[in-house]
Amino acid sequence: xxxxxxxxxxxxxxxxxxxxxxxxxxxxxxxxxxxxxxxxxxxxxxxxxxxxxxxxxxxxxxxxxxxxxxxxxxxxxxxxxxxxxxxxxxxxxxxxxxxxxxxxxxxxxxxxxxxxxxxxxxxxxxxxxxxxxxxxxxxxxxxxxxxxxxxxxxxxxxxxxxxxxxxxxxxxxxxxxxxxxxxxxxxxxxxxxxxxxxxxxxxxxxxxxxxxxxxxxxxxxxxxxxxxxxxxxxxxxxxxxxxxxxxxxxxxxxxxxxxxxxxxxxxxxxxxxxxxxxxxxxxxxxxxxxxxxxxxxxxxxxxxxxxxxxxxxxxxxxxxxxxxxxxxxxxxxxxxxxxxxxxxxxxxxxxxxxxxxxxxxxxxxxxxxxxxxxxxxxxxxxxxxxxxxxxxxxxxxxxxxxxxxxxxxxxxxxxxxxxxxxxxxxxxxxxxxxxxxxxxxxxxxxxxxxxxxxxxxxxxxxxxxxxxxxxxxxxxxxxxxxxxxxxxxxxxxxxxxxxxxxxxxxxxxxxxxxxxxxxxxxxxxxxxxxxxxxxxxxxxxxxxxxxxxxxxxxxxxxxxxxxxxxxxxxxxxxxxxxxxxxxxxxxxxxxxxxxxxxxxxxxxxxxxxxxxxxxxxxxxxxxxxxxxxxxxxxx
Length: 635
What we know:
Elements: E1 3-9, E2 13-20, E3 29-30, E4 39-40, E5 42-46, E6 51-53, H1 55-59, E7 63-68, H2 79-97, E8 107-113, H3 119-132, E9 137-141, H4 142-152, E10 166-172, E11 177-183, E12 186-188, E13 195-196, H5 201-214, H6 218-227, H7 229-248, H8 250-253, E14 258-265, E15 269-276, H9 278-286, H10 297-309, E16 317-321, H11 328-337, E17 342-345, H12 352-379, H13 382-420, H14 429-441, H15 444-475, H16 485-490, H17 500-503, H18 511-525, H19 540-553, H20 555-564, H21 569-572, H22 577-586, H23 588-601, H24 605-631
Parallel strand pairs: 1-8, 8-9, 10-16, 16-17
Antiparallel strand pairs: 1-2, 2-3, 2-4, 5-6, 5-7, 10-11, 11-12, 11-13, 14-15
Helix pairs in contact: 2-3, 4-12, 5-6, 5-7, 6-7, 10-11, 12-15, 12-24, 13-14, 13-15, 13-22, 13-23, 13-24, 14-18, 18-23, 19-20
């Protein structure tokens, strides 16, 4: 793509920005449409068929019909779709006629929409522009576009790090206030707010109404504004501009009176004086407003903020955008609702969305190439090779972490059952111990221990993998932490899960279990039976009987016989639980060393390979998800 256009079609005013593919360091330029960077969202059809856009459409006396404020009716009024199509076609004609858009060039247009619009509405909206003749169109949430503008703004200098924070975007327009909560770059739908019918246009109407009522010719002017849509649009537009001038330097105008006189030529000449001062400003903010059910603008706006606050956690940043956000009171109310949140805005908030939309195009291209390289990396054997090189260490780490708990839970349970007579013969211990070990390995405690081991083991894997992921991020202007597994491990936001059966496969890897069984059985009947002697006077009889048996029939035969003998319970009870527990704890290091020796001598390459492949697949899936997060702001 050579050029990327951002079209912020607002209900009251619109703006178009253009970004160049080869000028990454420059902010998108705001284009002139109808001789204005911010132009009125209005059109009028003249008697000769000509189409007027912007300010001239609001007050042309030759207009047969005119339309304003049609975007806010898109979801509720089917007729608004025709108005949007006509207005969009007029803007496209203006862009082509001025040379700002060249037909046939390799370009893309990003059009904004309120965050509350659903997928079907967005697709219907997109179709309007493509049917009108625009280059390929993408619909992007206006709040996301504003956030991207903040990320790349030289004025704010917050950078992409904003994507790691929780951000509430408040887009205050002329007709609506749009709320969006974005956490770690991911937009979370707000069930209460979305698009709120509360905008600066309400105060425009109030200023005009108050000015009419306070003038000497109020009855006549009021009647004219009811009869003539053209004059009403013109006067409302003038009120908006006067209000904007006041709030652009409220401190200066608070002690002065700012006025504008309008001569209304309709059934004679009538003079209307618009006035903005401190008292009028207070009235616009605090007096009951039309369309707000008797509430003031301040009350309605603050109520919306509190409604949003109930649905989200406290954001770290609150980003104000939209032309009305210039009003100092808006910032104060936001700070009152979120006292622990940093409130930020740009120097030209009325252009934040348009610039962000244009920047979406360049970022989108970067992300496409970025994801392509991530996919290419995943297609290679790089991840599997790195994991395979560390798998043996994983075995060692798991054995170190789980051997003692296995002995404590599984071995002691089996001993208790044997000692109580539930297990009749020592020969049955083999199978029972396998069952106990399998049961423990599936327990929540074992899984938690395993999770900690895997997390620690993944760190060196992650560091080694960064040698391949970091250059991809650098090439495409993506923060390297976007593919940094270590960052996700620190946030406990990584989902690499390894089942114990993959490491301790009872049917295929029996080294650890056999080692434990061999040593435990030897504690009970090995060494000429001396292991049964717990010590002290209670064990003397048992030791004497077993020693006599060894002398008469031989050690090997005696041990084999004992495996099948149902040893009397009184004899079993001579072995105290504490004594057996102490012996079990002392063999821990022997179990581990035997396992390590078996691991070296009898490596099961098939299972090890499958385990490495399973872990690699999960890491690759995690990389895909992390790459998706980078794409989230494009919506």
